[in-house]
Design brief:
Blueprint (H helix, E strand, L loop, with lengths): L2 H17 L10 H4 L5 E4 L2 E6 L9 E7 L12 E5 L1 E2 L23 E4 L7 E6 L6 E6 L7 E8 L6 E6 L6 E7 L5 E8 L6 E9 L2 E2 L8 E3 L3 E6 L11 E9 L3 E8 L3 E5 L9 E6 L3 E9 L6 E8 L4 E2 L6 E4 L4 E7 L7 E7 L9 E8 L6 E6 L7 E7 L4 E7 L4 E7 L5 E3 L1 E7 L3 E5 L5 E4 L2 E10 L3 E10 L2 E8 L6 E4 L12
Parallel strand pairs: 5-16
Antiparallel strand pairs: 1-39, 2-8, 3-7, 3-9, 4-6, 4-8, 9-10, 11-17, 12-16, 12-18, 13-14, 13-15, 13-17, 18-19, 20-26, 21-25, 21-27, 22-23, 22-24, 22-26, 27-28, 29-36, 30-34, 30-37, 31-33, 31-36, 32-35, 37-38
Protein backbone atom coordinates (compact mmCIF):
# COMPACT_ATOMS: atom_id res chain seq x y z
CA UNK A 1 0.00 0.00 0.00
CA UNK A 2 1.28 3.45 -0.85
CA UNK A 3 1.72 6.06 1.87
CA UNK A 4 -1.08 8.12 0.29
CA UNK A 5 -3.48 5.24 0.91
CA UNK A 6 -2.44 5.07 4.55
CA UNK A 7 -3.12 8.80 4.85
CA UNK A 8 -6.55 8.29 3.32
CA UNK A 9 -7.41 5.65 5.94
CA UNK A 10 -6.27 7.86 8.80
CA UNK A 11 -8.12 10.85 7.41
CA UNK A 12 -11.34 8.91 7.00
CA UNK A 13 -11.25 7.62 10.58
CA UNK A 14 -10.70 11.17 11.86
CA UNK A 15 -13.52 12.49 9.67
CA UNK A 16 -15.86 9.80 10.99
CA UNK A 17 -15.10 10.77 14.56
CA UNK A 18 -16.09 14.36 13.79
CA UNK A 19 -19.05 13.93 11.46
CA UNK A 20 -20.47 10.52 12.20
CA UNK A 21 -19.87 9.24 8.65
CA UNK A 22 -17.36 6.57 7.80
CA UNK A 23 -16.93 4.98 4.39
CA UNK A 24 -13.68 4.02 2.73
CA UNK A 25 -12.74 2.00 -0.32
CA UNK A 26 -9.35 2.88 -1.75
CA UNK A 27 -8.37 1.42 -5.13
CA UNK A 28 -6.49 -1.84 -4.65
CA UNK A 29 -7.12 -1.95 -0.89
CA UNK A 30 -9.21 -5.13 -0.82
CA UNK A 31 -7.39 -6.36 2.29
CA UNK A 32 -8.58 -3.29 4.23
CA UNK A 33 -12.06 -3.13 2.72
CA UNK A 34 -12.79 -6.78 3.55
CA UNK A 35 -13.10 -8.03 6.91
CA UNK A 36 -12.64 -6.04 10.01
CA UNK A 37 -15.42 -5.46 12.46
CA UNK A 38 -16.34 -1.83 13.00
CA UNK A 39 -15.68 -0.10 16.29
CA UNK A 40 -17.17 2.96 17.98
CA UNK A 41 -15.12 6.04 18.79
CA UNK A 42 -16.07 9.27 20.59
CA UNK A 43 -16.84 12.21 18.33
CA UNK A 44 -14.10 14.83 18.27
CA UNK A 45 -16.28 17.88 17.58
CA UNK A 46 -19.87 18.94 18.31
CA UNK A 47 -21.83 22.07 17.40
CA UNK A 48 -24.82 23.58 19.22
CA UNK A 49 -27.13 26.47 18.35
CA UNK A 50 -29.45 28.22 20.82
CA UNK A 51 -32.23 30.45 19.37
CA UNK A 52 -32.63 34.08 20.42
CA UNK A 53 -34.72 33.84 23.63
CA UNK A 54 -35.95 37.41 23.89
CA UNK A 55 -39.65 38.01 23.34
CA UNK A 56 -40.30 40.40 26.21
CA UNK A 57 -38.46 42.98 28.28
CA UNK A 58 -39.46 40.81 31.25
CA UNK A 59 -37.66 37.73 29.87
CA UNK A 60 -35.05 36.16 32.16
CA UNK A 61 -33.01 33.42 30.49
CA UNK A 62 -30.74 30.80 32.02
CA UNK A 63 -28.30 28.71 29.96
CA UNK A 64 -27.00 25.46 31.43
CA UNK A 65 -24.30 23.59 29.52
CA UNK A 66 -22.72 20.19 30.29
CA UNK A 67 -20.82 17.28 28.82
CA UNK A 68 -21.55 13.96 30.56
CA UNK A 69 -18.78 12.47 32.67
CA UNK A 70 -17.26 9.11 31.87
CA UNK A 71 -16.59 9.73 28.19
CA UNK A 72 -13.33 9.66 26.29
CA UNK A 73 -10.02 10.33 27.95
CA UNK A 74 -8.68 12.20 24.93
CA UNK A 75 -7.45 15.76 24.63
CA UNK A 76 -8.98 18.29 27.01
CA UNK A 77 -10.55 20.35 24.24
CA UNK A 78 -12.92 23.33 24.59
CA UNK A 79 -16.68 23.89 24.67
CA UNK A 80 -17.89 27.44 24.26
CA UNK A 81 -21.07 29.28 23.25
CA UNK A 82 -20.84 32.79 21.82
CA UNK A 83 -23.29 35.55 20.88
CA UNK A 84 -24.41 35.57 17.25
CA UNK A 85 -25.67 38.50 15.21
CA UNK A 86 -29.47 38.82 15.13
CA UNK A 87 -30.74 39.66 11.64
CA UNK A 88 -34.25 40.63 10.57
CA UNK A 89 -36.11 38.44 8.08
CA UNK A 90 -35.52 40.98 5.30
CA UNK A 91 -31.76 40.73 5.82
CA UNK A 92 -31.15 43.89 7.85
CA UNK A 93 -29.10 43.70 11.04
CA UNK A 94 -30.54 45.03 14.26
CA UNK A 95 -29.08 48.25 15.63
CA UNK A 96 -26.39 48.27 18.29
CA UNK A 97 -28.82 49.75 20.83
CA UNK A 98 -32.45 49.02 21.56
CA UNK A 99 -35.19 51.65 21.71
CA UNK A 100 -34.33 52.46 25.32
CA UNK A 101 -30.68 53.10 24.47
CA UNK A 102 -29.47 49.95 26.18
CA UNK A 103 -26.39 48.49 24.52
CA UNK A 104 -27.00 45.13 22.90
CA UNK A 105 -24.92 41.99 23.40
CA UNK A 106 -21.61 42.01 21.53
CA UNK A 107 -21.57 39.59 18.56
CA UNK A 108 -18.93 36.91 19.05
CA UNK A 109 -18.60 37.47 22.79
CA UNK A 110 -18.28 34.23 24.81
CA UNK A 111 -21.32 33.56 27.00
CA UNK A 112 -20.21 30.39 28.75
CA UNK A 113 -17.35 27.89 28.60
CA UNK A 114 -17.08 24.36 29.98
CA UNK A 115 -13.97 23.34 31.88
CA UNK A 116 -14.45 19.59 32.35
CA UNK A 117 -17.01 16.81 31.78
CA UNK A 118 -19.61 16.21 34.47
CA UNK A 119 -19.64 19.78 35.83
CA UNK A 120 -22.31 22.08 34.33
CA UNK A 121 -21.79 25.80 33.86
CA UNK A 122 -24.51 28.44 33.71
CA UNK A 123 -25.00 31.94 32.32
CA UNK A 124 -27.88 34.40 32.33
CA UNK A 125 -29.38 36.97 29.96
CA UNK A 126 -32.19 39.49 30.42
CA UNK A 127 -34.64 41.36 28.22
CA UNK A 128 -35.87 41.05 24.67
CA UNK A 129 -32.57 41.68 22.88
CA UNK A 130 -30.57 38.61 23.95
CA UNK A 131 -29.11 37.11 20.75
CA UNK A 132 -28.90 33.54 19.55
CA UNK A 133 -25.82 31.56 20.59
CA UNK A 134 -23.50 29.49 18.41
CA UNK A 135 -20.81 27.19 19.72
CA UNK A 136 -18.45 24.28 19.25
CA UNK A 137 -17.03 21.63 21.56
CA UNK A 138 -13.86 19.67 20.88
CA UNK A 139 -11.79 16.92 22.49
CA UNK A 140 -13.26 15.15 25.51
CA UNK A 141 -15.87 17.91 25.90
CA UNK A 142 -17.48 17.05 22.54
CA UNK A 143 -19.18 13.65 23.12
CA UNK A 144 -22.71 14.26 24.42
CA UNK A 145 -22.33 18.04 24.83
CA UNK A 146 -25.77 19.44 25.77
CA UNK A 147 -27.13 22.90 26.56
CA UNK A 148 -30.56 23.91 27.85
CA UNK A 149 -32.00 27.38 27.32
CA UNK A 150 -34.77 28.22 29.82
CA UNK A 151 -36.63 31.54 29.79
CA UNK A 152 -39.14 32.81 32.34
CA UNK A 153 -41.61 35.52 31.32
CA UNK A 154 -43.76 36.32 34.34
CA UNK A 155 -46.49 38.38 32.70
CA UNK A 156 -47.85 39.69 29.41
CA UNK A 157 -49.07 38.00 26.25
CA UNK A 158 -45.91 35.88 25.97
CA UNK A 159 -45.83 34.82 29.63
CA UNK A 160 -44.67 31.34 30.44
CA UNK A 161 -41.70 29.06 31.01
CA UNK A 162 -39.99 28.45 27.68
CA UNK A 163 -37.41 25.69 27.40
CA UNK A 164 -35.43 24.24 24.52
CA UNK A 165 -32.47 21.92 24.18
CA UNK A 166 -30.05 23.76 21.92
CA UNK A 167 -29.88 22.04 18.55
CA UNK A 168 -27.21 20.71 16.26
CA UNK A 169 -27.09 22.28 12.78
CA UNK A 170 -28.80 20.43 9.95
CA UNK A 171 -30.53 20.77 6.59
CA UNK A 172 -34.03 19.32 7.12
CA UNK A 173 -36.59 19.92 9.92
CA UNK A 174 -40.28 19.07 10.45
CA UNK A 175 -42.51 20.98 12.90
CA UNK A 176 -46.07 19.67 13.26
CA UNK A 177 -48.33 21.56 15.73
CA UNK A 178 -47.35 25.05 14.56
CA UNK A 179 -50.16 27.45 13.66
CA UNK A 180 -51.13 30.48 11.60
CA UNK A 181 -54.32 31.11 13.62
CA UNK A 182 -55.03 34.67 14.81
CA UNK A 183 -54.64 33.55 18.43
CA UNK A 184 -51.07 32.34 17.77
CA UNK A 185 -47.80 34.09 17.05
CA UNK A 186 -45.34 31.45 15.85
CA UNK A 187 -41.80 32.27 14.69
CA UNK A 188 -39.33 29.96 12.98
CA UNK A 189 -35.85 30.81 14.27
CA UNK A 190 -33.05 30.01 11.81
CA UNK A 191 -29.47 30.15 13.10
CA UNK A 192 -26.37 29.75 10.93
CA UNK A 193 -23.17 28.58 12.69
CA UNK A 194 -20.88 28.74 9.67
CA UNK A 195 -18.58 31.29 8.04
CA UNK A 196 -20.70 31.56 4.88
CA UNK A 197 -24.36 32.42 4.37
CA UNK A 198 -27.01 29.70 4.31
CA UNK A 199 -30.15 29.80 2.15
CA UNK A 200 -33.31 28.20 3.55
CA UNK A 201 -36.82 27.40 2.32
CA UNK A 202 -39.91 27.22 4.55
CA UNK A 203 -42.94 25.22 3.38
CA UNK A 204 -46.29 25.23 5.20
CA UNK A 205 -48.95 22.50 5.11
CA UNK A 206 -52.45 22.88 6.54
CA UNK A 207 -55.45 20.52 6.80
CA UNK A 208 -56.10 20.83 3.05
CA UNK A 209 -52.51 20.61 1.88
CA UNK A 210 -49.81 23.11 0.94
CA UNK A 211 -50.42 26.71 2.01
CA UNK A 212 -49.59 29.09 -0.82
CA UNK A 213 -46.59 31.28 -0.09
CA UNK A 214 -44.45 33.53 -2.26
CA UNK A 215 -42.02 34.63 0.45
CA UNK A 216 -40.97 31.38 2.12
CA UNK A 217 -38.31 30.54 -0.46
CA UNK A 218 -34.68 31.61 -0.59
CA UNK A 219 -34.39 33.07 2.92
CA UNK A 220 -30.79 34.15 3.46
CA UNK A 221 -29.30 33.52 6.88
CA UNK A 222 -25.97 35.40 7.10
CA UNK A 223 -22.87 33.78 8.60
CA UNK A 224 -22.96 33.47 12.40
CA UNK A 225 -26.42 35.04 12.43
CA UNK A 226 -29.99 34.24 13.40
CA UNK A 227 -33.16 35.15 11.48
CA UNK A 228 -36.65 34.94 13.04
CA UNK A 229 -39.52 34.45 10.58
CA UNK A 230 -43.16 34.97 11.62
CA UNK A 231 -44.91 32.11 9.82
CA UNK A 232 -48.27 33.88 9.56
CA UNK A 233 -46.57 36.39 7.25
CA UNK A 234 -45.70 33.61 4.81
CA UNK A 235 -49.33 32.88 3.90
CA UNK A 236 -52.74 34.55 3.93
CA UNK A 237 -54.43 31.35 5.13
CA UNK A 238 -55.20 30.92 8.83
CA UNK A 239 -55.12 27.35 10.19
CA UNK A 240 -55.19 25.97 13.72
CA UNK A 241 -52.70 23.21 12.95
CA UNK A 242 -49.86 23.70 10.46
CA UNK A 243 -46.81 21.62 9.65
CA UNK A 244 -43.67 23.67 8.97
CA UNK A 245 -40.93 22.14 6.81
CA UNK A 246 -37.52 23.83 6.83
CA UNK A 247 -34.84 22.84 4.34
CA UNK A 248 -31.64 24.46 3.15
CA UNK A 249 -30.43 24.96 -0.41
CA UNK A 250 -26.95 25.84 0.75
CA UNK A 251 -25.31 25.62 4.15
CA UNK A 252 -26.71 24.46 7.49
CA UNK A 253 -28.98 26.00 10.07
CA UNK A 254 -30.42 25.24 13.46
CA UNK A 255 -34.21 25.55 13.40
CA UNK A 256 -36.82 25.72 16.16
CA UNK A 257 -40.30 27.29 16.45
CA UNK A 258 -41.29 29.70 19.22
CA UNK A 259 -45.04 29.78 19.82
CA UNK A 260 -47.08 32.30 21.84
CA UNK A 261 -50.81 31.81 22.27
CA UNK A 262 -53.39 34.24 23.65
CA UNK A 263 -54.41 33.30 27.18
CA UNK A 264 -52.39 30.08 27.23
CA UNK A 265 -48.76 31.18 27.31
CA UNK A 266 -45.74 30.35 25.18
CA UNK A 267 -43.01 27.77 24.65
CA UNK A 268 -40.62 26.33 22.08
CA UNK A 269 -41.63 23.61 19.62
CA UNK A 270 -38.62 21.46 18.75
CA UNK A 271 -38.41 19.45 15.52
CA UNK A 272 -40.04 16.04 15.25
CA UNK A 273 -37.90 12.98 14.72
CA UNK A 274 -37.46 12.06 11.03
CA UNK A 275 -40.56 10.52 9.38
CA UNK A 276 -41.29 6.99 10.61
CA UNK A 277 -44.25 4.60 10.54
CA UNK A 278 -44.03 4.19 14.33
CA UNK A 279 -43.53 7.21 16.58
CA UNK A 280 -43.42 7.84 20.33
CA UNK A 281 -44.35 11.11 22.06
CA UNK A 282 -43.22 10.74 25.69
CA UNK A 283 -43.89 12.70 28.86
CA UNK A 284 -47.52 13.91 28.96
CA UNK A 285 -48.03 15.31 32.48
CA UNK A 286 -50.54 13.55 34.73
CA UNK A 287 -52.57 16.74 35.20
CA UNK A 288 -52.79 17.73 31.52
CA UNK A 289 -56.18 19.36 30.89
CA UNK A 290 -55.92 19.41 27.10
CA UNK A 291 -53.81 17.37 24.66
CA UNK A 292 -53.90 17.87 20.89
CA UNK A 293 -52.16 15.43 18.56
CA UNK A 294 -50.94 16.77 15.19
CA UNK A 295 -49.50 14.47 12.51
CA UNK A 296 -48.31 14.88 8.93
CA UNK A 297 -47.48 12.36 6.18
CA UNK A 298 -44.80 13.85 3.88
CA UNK A 299 -44.86 11.03 1.33
CA UNK A 300 -47.22 10.10 -1.50
CA UNK A 301 -49.40 7.75 0.55
CA UNK A 302 -51.97 8.27 3.30
CA UNK A 303 -51.24 7.00 6.81
CA UNK A 304 -53.66 5.11 9.06
CA UNK A 305 -52.36 4.94 12.61
CA UNK A 306 -53.43 3.32 15.83
CA UNK A 307 -53.32 5.70 18.81
CA UNK A 308 -52.39 4.26 22.19
CA UNK A 309 -51.68 5.85 25.53
CA UNK A 310 -48.88 4.09 27.40
CA UNK A 311 -49.69 4.72 31.04
CA UNK A 312 -48.50 3.58 34.42
CA UNK A 313 -49.88 0.05 34.12
CA UNK A 314 -50.16 -0.54 30.39
CA UNK A 315 -51.55 0.61 27.05
CA UNK A 316 -55.08 1.86 26.38
CA UNK A 317 -56.84 3.16 23.29
CA UNK A 318 -58.50 6.55 23.89
CA UNK A 319 -62.27 6.20 23.45
CA UNK A 320 -63.39 7.83 20.22
CA UNK A 321 -59.82 8.38 19.08
CA UNK A 322 -58.50 4.87 18.67
CA UNK A 323 -56.97 5.80 15.31
CA UNK A 324 -56.10 8.75 13.11
CA UNK A 325 -56.17 9.04 9.31
CA UNK A 326 -53.48 11.32 7.86
CA UNK A 327 -53.85 12.20 4.20
CA UNK A 328 -50.74 12.62 2.10
CA UNK A 329 -49.21 16.09 2.55
CA UNK A 330 -52.12 17.26 4.73
CA UNK A 331 -51.90 18.09 8.42
CA UNK A 332 -54.27 16.12 10.66
CA UNK A 333 -55.12 16.98 14.25
CA UNK A 334 -57.31 15.45 16.95
CA UNK A 335 -58.18 16.76 20.41
CA UNK A 336 -57.56 14.11 23.06
CA UNK A 337 -58.70 16.39 25.91
CA UNK A 338 -57.56 15.23 29.38
CA UNK A 339 -56.44 11.84 28.06
CA UNK A 340 -54.11 11.01 30.97
CA UNK A 341 -56.89 11.19 33.61
CA UNK A 342 -54.50 11.96 36.45
CA UNK A 343 -51.72 9.55 35.49
CA UNK A 344 -48.62 10.38 33.43
CA UNK A 345 -48.41 8.83 30.01
CA UNK A 346 -46.96 8.81 26.50
CA UNK A 347 -48.51 8.39 23.07
CA UNK A 348 -47.56 5.57 20.71
CA UNK A 349 -48.58 5.73 17.04
CA UNK A 350 -48.31 2.50 15.01
CA UNK A 351 -49.55 1.36 11.56
CA UNK A 352 -53.26 0.48 11.82
CA UNK A 353 -52.89 -2.56 9.58
CA UNK A 354 -49.78 -3.91 11.25
CA UNK A 355 -46.55 -4.44 9.38
CA UNK A 356 -44.88 -1.57 7.58
CA UNK A 357 -46.86 1.66 7.29
CA UNK A 358 -46.58 5.17 5.88
CA UNK A 359 -43.97 7.39 7.60
CA UNK A 360 -45.26 10.41 9.54
CA UNK A 361 -44.02 13.21 11.76
CA UNK A 362 -45.99 14.25 14.84
CA UNK A 363 -46.15 16.53 17.86
CA UNK A 364 -48.39 17.28 20.85
CA UNK A 365 -49.73 20.57 22.14
CA UNK A 366 -50.22 20.08 25.89
CA UNK A 367 -52.06 22.43 28.27
CA UNK A 368 -52.12 22.36 32.08
CA UNK A 369 -54.48 24.42 34.23
CA UNK A 370 -57.79 26.10 33.46
CA UNK A 371 -59.12 29.60 32.88
CA UNK A 372 -56.50 32.30 33.32
CA UNK A 373 -54.14 29.77 34.94
CA UNK A 374 -53.45 27.82 31.74
CA UNK A 375 -49.96 27.13 30.44
CA UNK A 376 -48.87 25.42 27.21
CA UNK A 377 -45.94 23.22 26.16
CA UNK A 378 -45.08 21.03 23.17
CA UNK A 379 -43.82 17.45 22.86
CA UNK A 380 -42.43 16.36 19.46
CA UNK A 381 -42.11 12.74 18.41
CA UNK A 382 -38.64 11.65 19.44
CA UNK A 383 -36.16 8.87 18.91
CA UNK A 384 -35.08 6.45 21.64
CA UNK A 385 -32.46 7.24 24.28
CA UNK A 386 -30.12 4.81 22.55
CA UNK A 387 -26.76 4.47 24.27
CA UNK A 388 -27.06 7.77 26.16
CA UNK A 389 -29.01 11.04 26.32
CA UNK A 390 -28.70 14.16 28.47
CA UNK A 391 -30.90 17.09 29.45
CA UNK A 392 -29.53 20.09 31.37
CA UNK A 393 -31.09 22.68 33.72
CA UNK A 394 -32.69 20.48 36.34
CA UNK A 395 -33.35 22.01 39.73
CA UNK A 396 -33.78 20.84 43.31
CA UNK A 397 -37.56 20.92 42.78
CA UNK A 398 -39.85 20.80 39.77
CA UNK A 399 -38.24 18.16 37.54
CA UNK A 400 -40.06 14.98 36.45
CA UNK A 401 -38.39 12.34 34.26
CA UNK A 402 -40.69 10.21 32.07
CA UNK A 403 -39.39 6.89 30.76
CA UNK A 404 -41.40 4.94 28.19
CA UNK A 405 -40.75 1.39 26.95
CA UNK A 406 -43.03 0.84 23.91
CA UNK A 407 -41.73 -2.70 23.43
CA UNK A 408 -39.75 -4.89 25.80
CA UNK A 409 -39.11 -4.18 29.47
CA UNK A 410 -35.95 -2.15 29.95
CA UNK A 411 -33.53 -1.01 32.64
CA UNK A 412 -31.82 2.38 32.50
CA UNK A 413 -29.19 4.13 34.59
CA UNK A 414 -29.90 7.77 35.44
CA UNK A 415 -27.01 9.98 36.55
CA UNK A 416 -27.56 13.35 38.17
CA UNK A 417 -24.41 15.38 37.51
CA UNK A 418 -22.66 17.61 39.99
CA UNK A 419 -24.36 20.99 40.42
CA UNK A 420 -23.22 24.08 38.57
CA UNK A 421 -22.38 25.65 41.94
CA UNK A 422 -21.33 22.51 43.81
CA UNK A 423 -22.46 19.04 44.88
CA UNK A 424 -21.66 15.42 44.07
CA UNK A 425 -23.25 13.32 41.35
CA UNK A 426 -25.92 10.75 42.19
CA UNK A 427 -26.84 7.57 40.28
CA UNK A 428 -30.02 5.45 40.27
CA UNK A 429 -31.38 2.59 38.15
CA UNK A 430 -34.98 2.26 36.97
CA UNK A 431 -36.83 -0.64 35.38
CA UNK A 432 -39.58 0.28 32.90
CA UNK A 433 -42.09 -2.45 32.12
CA UNK A 434 -42.88 -3.00 28.46
CA UNK A 435 -45.85 -1.00 27.20
CA UNK A 436 -45.80 1.47 30.11
CA UNK A 437 -44.61 4.92 31.13
CA UNK A 438 -42.71 5.41 34.37
CA UNK A 439 -42.66 8.99 35.69
CA UNK A 440 -40.20 9.63 38.53
CA UNK A 441 -38.71 12.45 40.52
CA UNK A 442 -35.11 12.09 39.33
CA UNK A 443 -32.12 11.78 41.65
CA UNK A 444 -30.67 15.03 42.96
CA UNK A 445 -26.92 15.55 43.55
CA UNK A 446 -25.93 15.48 47.19
CA UNK A 447 -25.11 18.97 48.44
CA UNK A 448 -26.60 20.50 45.28
CA UNK A 449 -25.89 24.13 44.52
CA UNK A 450 -27.22 25.57 41.27
CA UNK A 451 -28.63 23.51 38.40
CA UNK A 452 -27.63 20.04 37.25
CA UNK A 453 -27.95 17.67 34.30
CA UNK A 454 -29.62 14.28 33.95
CA UNK A 455 -28.02 11.59 31.79
CA UNK A 456 -29.98 8.45 30.87
CA UNK A 457 -28.07 5.35 29.72
CA UNK A 458 -29.44 2.02 28.55
CA UNK A 459 -28.55 -0.98 30.69
CA UNK A 460 -30.73 -3.74 29.18
CA UNK A 461 -33.89 -4.36 27.14
CA UNK A 462 -35.61 -1.50 25.44
CA UNK A 463 -35.83 0.67 23.52
CA UNK A 464 -36.69 3.52 25.90
CA UNK A 465 -37.98 7.00 25.00
CA UNK A 466 -37.61 9.78 27.56
CA UNK A 467 -38.69 13.32 28.35
CA UNK A 468 -38.08 15.76 31.20
CA UNK A 469 -40.77 18.14 32.47
CA UNK A 470 -39.58 21.24 34.33
CA UNK A 471 -42.22 23.12 36.35
CA UNK A 472 -41.90 26.51 38.03
CA UNK A 473 -44.97 27.92 39.80
CA UNK A 474 -45.28 31.66 39.20
CA UNK A 475 -48.22 33.89 40.20
CA UNK A 476 -50.28 30.80 40.91
CA UNK A 477 -49.64 29.31 37.44
CA UNK A 478 -47.83 25.99 36.99
CA UNK A 479 -45.55 27.15 34.21
CA UNK A 480 -43.86 24.19 32.55
CA UNK A 481 -41.78 23.03 29.61
CA UNK A 482 -40.99 19.55 28.27
CA UNK A 483 -37.74 18.43 26.62
CA UNK A 484 -37.26 15.04 24.97
CA UNK A 485 -34.03 13.02 25.33
CA UNK A 486 -32.97 11.40 22.04
CA UNK A 487 -29.61 9.65 21.65
CA UNK A 488 -26.76 12.17 21.90
CA UNK A 489 -24.72 10.38 19.19
CA UNK A 490 -21.59 10.93 21.25
CA UNK A 491 -19.89 8.04 19.46
CA UNK A 492 -19.70 7.03 15.81
CA UNK A 493 -19.00 3.75 14.07
CA UNK A 494 -15.74 3.57 12.12
CA UNK A 495 -13.97 0.73 10.31
CA UNK A 496 -11.40 -1.17 12.34
CA UNK A 497 -7.81 -0.38 11.35
CA UNK A 498 -5.50 -3.06 9.95
CA UNK A 499 -3.39 -4.41 12.82
CA UNK A 500 -0.25 -5.12 10.74
CA UNK A 501 0.00 -3.00 7.61
CA UNK A 502 3.64 -3.92 6.94
CA UNK A 503 2.60 -6.98 4.93
CA UNK A 504 1.02 -4.63 2.39
CA UNK A 505 4.31 -3.03 1.48
CA UNK A 506 5.17 0.65 1.21
Amino acid sequence: MKSSSLSLIAGTVALAAVTGFAALTAPGDKEVAQAKTATRLPVEQSSLLCPAPGLSDLAETTYTSVTPAGGSGGEAGTAELRNSTVTTADGGKKTEKDQKGKKKADPGKPVLSLKEPGKPVTAEASGSDAPALVGTATGRLAPGWATQQTTMVEAGGARGLLGVSCTRPGTNYWFPAASTAKSREDYVHLTNPDDTAAVADIELYGPDGSLKSDVGEGITVPAHSSVPVLISTLTSEAAESVTVHVTTRTGRVGAVVRSAEDGVGSDWLAASVDPSDTVVLPGIPADATSVRLVAFAPGDGDADLKVKLLGKTGAISPVGHEDIHVKSRMTAGIDLKDITKGEPGSLLLTPAGGGKGTPVVAALRVVRGTGDKQEVAYIPATGPVGARATVADNRDKGSVLSLTAPGATATVKVTASAGSGGGEQSVKEYTVKGGTTLAVTPPVPSGLKGGYALTVEMESGGPVHAARTLTVTQNGIQMFTVQTLPDDHGTVEVPAAEQDLSVLGD
